[in-house]
Specification:
This protein has about 280 residues and is of the alpha+beta class. It folds into two domains: about 5-95, OB fold (Dihydrolipoamide Acetyltransferase, E2P); about 100-285, Orthogonal Bundle (Hypothetical protein af1432). Helices cover about 40% and strands about 20% of the residues.
C-alpha cells in the first residue's frame, strides 16, 4: 500500500486512508463538489471530487477509514488527489489503526525502559510503591505507551505522552541536581505522573478525539483520580505525601483554586519544566 508521503504528482492512487475532514461545497457555477482530508501515519493530503459529489458524499463519513481511487495532482504547490471514487473501507481491509495515526519518532520500548529506570530514582517508600503499582498494571502501561499529549499541539502523536513524560522526569532529576533543597522523590514522582490523566483523555479511531471524561473533566482531574486510585491500591502512601503529590499534578499548568502562588517549590519546578519541554517540542514541530 502506498503511503501518503510516497504519493507523487501525475500518478494513480488506489489505497486505504483515514478521512479526517469532509465538506461538501458549491462551486461558482452552482454545482456541488466534495473536499476531504486524508491521513495515514506518514502524513496527510487533501482530496477533491467534482464529479458525482453528492453520491460520493453519501458513501462515507468523517472519521471513517476509506478506500480511495484517483489521481495525484499538484495544486498551489501542494499535492492533492483528484478523486474518482471514495467509500467506507471494508473492515476486513483495515489493519492496525496505528497505520493511520501519527506515531512517536522515538522507539516506545526504549522510552518505557527510561520510564522504568526513572522509577528506580524514587526512594520514598510510599511514592516508590505507588509507581511500582502503576507499572504492574499492564492496561495502564499500554495506555501510557499509546496516548498522545495533545490532539493538535505538542507531542500530538501515538506515544507522545510517554515521550513527554520521560523528558519532563529527566529534566526534573537534572533540576534536583542543581537545587538539592527540593524533595527529589516528590518532584520525580510528580513528573512521572503529572499527565497520567491523558491515558483516559482520548479515543482512537480514524483520528484521535477526546473521550467523554477528557471533554468534561480534563486530564488534570482525570490524573488526580488515577493518583488517588493507585495510592489506595498500593496501600503504602501516607495522606500528607498523597496531598503534596496531588497538588503538583493539579497545578502543573499553574496554581490551583485561584491561588496566586504555588503550594510548594516542587509544584513550581514541575510547572516550569513541563512548560519548557512542551514549548520546545511545540516550536520544533
Amino acid at each position: 500500500m502506498t503511503t501518503i508521503a510516497e504519493l507523487q504528482p501525475d500518478t494513480e492512487v488506489n489505497g486505504i486512508y483515514a478521512c479526517t475532514r469532509k465538506q461538501k461545497l458549491t462551486a461558482r457555477n452552482g454545482s456541488p463538489y466534495l473536499t476531504v482530508e486524508l491521513r495515514d501515519a506518514s502524513g496527510k493530503i487533501g482530496g477533491r471530487a467534482f464529479n458525482d459529489a453528492s453520491f460520493l458524499d453519501s458513501q462515507f463519513d468523517r472519521g471513517d477509514i476509506v478506500r480511495v481511487a484517483g489521481r495525484v495532482e499538484s495544486f498551489q504547490e501542494q499535492h492533492q488527489i483528484n478523486l474518482r471514487s471514495i467509500k467506507r473501507a471494508d473492515p476486513a481491509e483495515v489493519g492496525d489503526l496505528s497505520d493511520f495515526l501519527p506515531s512517536a519518532y522515538r522507539d516506545v520500548d526504549e522510552l518505557e525502559g527510561f520510564f522504568e529506570h526513572l522509577v528506580t530514582e524514587v526512594h520514598h517508600p510510599g511514592y516508590a510503591q505507588l509507581l511500582n503499582t502503576v507499572l504492574a498494571d499492564r492496561e495502564l502501561r499500554d495506555a501510557l505507551r499509546t496516548a498522545p499529549c495533545t490532539i493538535g499541539g505538542h507531542h500530538a502523536y501515538l506515544g507522545g505522552l510517554l515521550e513527554h513524560t520521560v523528558a519532563v522526569a529527566t529534566l526534573a532529576k537534572e533540576t534536583w541536581d542543581l537545587h538539592r533543597r527540593l524533595d527529589s522523590d516528590l518532584l520525580i514522582t510528580a513528573a512521572l505522573l503529572h499527565d497520567i490523566g491523558k491515558t483516559r483523555e482520548f479515543v482512537y479511531g480514524a483520528e484521535i478525539t477526546q473521550s467523554e471524561g477528557g471533554r468534561l473533566l480534563g486530564h488534570l482531574e482525570l490524573g488526580a483520580q488515577i493518583v488517588r486510585e493507585y495510592a489506595i491500591k498500593s496501600g503504602g502512601l501516607d495522606r500528607s505525601s498523597e496531598l503534596k503529590l496531588l497538588n503538583c499534578v493539579l497545578s502543573h499548568h499553574g496554581p490551583t483554586g485561584g491561588a496566586s502562588t504555588f503550594a510548594s517549590a516542587e509544584a513550581l519546578a514541575l510547572y516550569r519544566i513541563n512548560a519548557l519541554d512542551a514549548g520546545i517540542k511545540g516550536y520544533l514541530e
